[in-house]
TrEMBL record:
One family name in Pfam for this protein: NAPRTase_N
UniProt keyword terms in alphabetical order: Glycosyltransferase, Ligase, Magnesium, Manganese, Metal-binding, Phosphoprotein, Pyridine nucleotide biosynthesis, Transferase
One GO location term (cellular component): cytosol
Metabolic or biological pathway, per its Swiss-Prot or TrEMBL entry: Cofactor biosynthesis; NAD(+) biosynthesis; nicotinate D-ribonucleotide from nicotinate: step 1/1
Catalytic activity as recorded in UniProt: 5-phospho-alpha-D-ribose 1-diphosphate + nicotinate + ATP + H2O = nicotinate beta-D-ribonucleotide + ADP + phosphate + diphosphate
GO MF, one annotated term: metal ion binding
Species classification: Eukaryota, Viridiplantae, Streptophyta, Embryophyta, Tracheophyta
Any one of the GO BP annotations: NAD+ biosynthetic process via the salvage pathway
Protein name, entry field: Nicotinate phosphoribosyltransferase
Amino acid sequence: MATAVANGPNKDEKRADCIDGPTNPMVTPLLTDLYQFTMAYAYWKAGKHNERAVFDLYFRRNPFGGEYTIFAGLEECIKLIANFKFTEDEIAFIKSSLSSSCEDGFYDYLRGIDCSDVEIHAISEGFVVFPKIPLMRIEGPVAVVQLLETPLVNLINYASLVATNAARHRFVAGKSKLLLEFGLRRAQGPDGGIGASKYCYMGGFDATSNVAAGRLFGIPLRGTHSHAFVSSFMSPDEIIEKSLLSCDGLKVCEDFVSLVHSWLSKLKWSQLLGGTFGETNQSELAAFASYALAFPENFLALVDTYDVMRSGIPNFCAVALALNDLGYKAVGIRLDSGDLAYLSCETRKFFQAVEKEFSVPHFGKTSITASNDLNEETLDALNKQGHEVDAYGIGTHLVTCYAQPALGVVFKLVEINNQPRIKLSEDVSKVSIPCKKRCYRLYGKEGYPLVDLMTGENEPPPKAGERILCRHPFNESKRAYVVPQRVEELLKCFWPGKSGKNREELPPLKMIRERCIEQLDRMRPDHMRRLNPTPYKVSVSAKLYDFIHFLWLNEAPVGELQ
Ligand SMILES: Nc1ncnc2c1ncn2[C@@H]1O[C@H](COP(=O)(O)OP(=O)(O)OP(=O)(O)O)[C@@H](O)[C@H]1O
Ligand SMILES: O=P(O)(O)OC[C@H]1O[C@H](OP(=O)(O)OP(=O)(O)O)[C@H](O)[C@@H]1O
Ligand SMILES: O=C(O)c1cccnc1
Ligand SMILES: [Mg+2]
């Protein structure tokens, strides 16, 4: 074990304490709404800026018509908090943006602030979460925490939305399918593209085509080729370098293209396949042969440029069989148009016939990737029809969150100077839940989470085996006694400020992904189904219920009828 240096922490300890800045350098203290600065000034002017405030960050409704959400984006929030400091340039810009009547003392104040006195409790990233439960509780000097509202909401909103979208696509596709995120070109700008790759991986995708995201986050990279590559070839005569070394390195095939041609003839005249196709497109054959020469160990062909069954599939098989002669195993094909259920089944039959006719073991299992405007509904339709797809490449609908463009994350004041605060609304679902709270997940005897429970900060925690009354926060008649088998505290300290608490580690992305998959597996199936899922119960303790309603009556003016 390393021994500590007398004058402070040793190198390892120092490194553990240092948190890099946000992935996107645009995430600075200026990435906020102007009104956060005007409020900060007004707090400062009123001498209120150091009042201790507690804000909850939460959302009101699960996205995509579902009953669950994946919490994502926390690491980037902590990276912002850890590095929150204004530069002189930024202060000069704020000064130029606020009224000239704002006093200089405010800018001295801004110069001095950071998040060393801010305390953040949060649910762990990758957890399944539900409406109204604080995902993060942010406590600190009111002016500082107010400045954090916009960037924190921004960092959580899309991250959680797209991670949930990915989890939902995974749910429909099934565990055995390979899911590839292909969305960069369609994402909402570079940050949308990078964020989509990170959080789709977190939500259960296997790989991305986004090279920058692969480098930044260590996400596995995968890809095929495009129609342009196929249509860029005119004929097999174009291929100059035709030799290919066998997989074992022991022999050289001097003319791989001729070998491919000979296989194409065998396919055409074979007993099982004869008559299913005639002349295939020769420029496509040239493209496939070239790709195989470039990547003999990773040959995957896009087969729909001209005609899937009459050209793409026979051409692919000819190249794959030629590769097989040299000891290579072709990876598979990608379908990017047409009826994906029908074409995948026909392709599978063709592969199985090739396996049988030419005794090529496992050829029937050659991988079929499908793409083209896929979304939850099309995946579901394919399942219902029956298909033979092994992998999906999904772009536009996944990364743009086409089905729902935003998760309504909000940031509400729940306490100031130890005084609970409430925000009332005509719409009960928008009434905020006051007080600095603790949150628990109560598990039932079958191991499923039963209910999430919010209590006041100082209430005794629920205990396994002890009956506790869980109440709907606003509906008097909805309540239930729960005897939890297990109790899990949800909010953990991710930024201790000056509290002296231990800080939770920020785990690597792969670990968050595993946690997310495990969390989803643990949910009761009726909460997860696509059609009419059962809402998960979110509740408050009896004491908190009484307090909410006391405060509500206290703050709401009594109407007068005339
Ligand atoms: N069997 C199927 N059941 C339901 N939807 C499917 C099925 N096969 C494909 N789809 C979907 O139908 C849509 C077909 O779209 P579109 O008509 O634009 O494609 P296409 O004409 O096949 O291909 P392209 O225009 O790219 O050449 C896509 O969203 C695709 O995902
Ligand atoms: O369909 P998405 O889910 O967005 O997935 C990514 C798509 O991007 C590529 O083609 P692109 O859409 O650029 O061209 P295409 O529509 O002509 O195939 C690829 O072939 C997929 O179809
Ligand atoms: O690798 C692919 O096949 C790919 C990548 C991005 C978009 N469409 C397809
Ligand atoms: Mg497309």
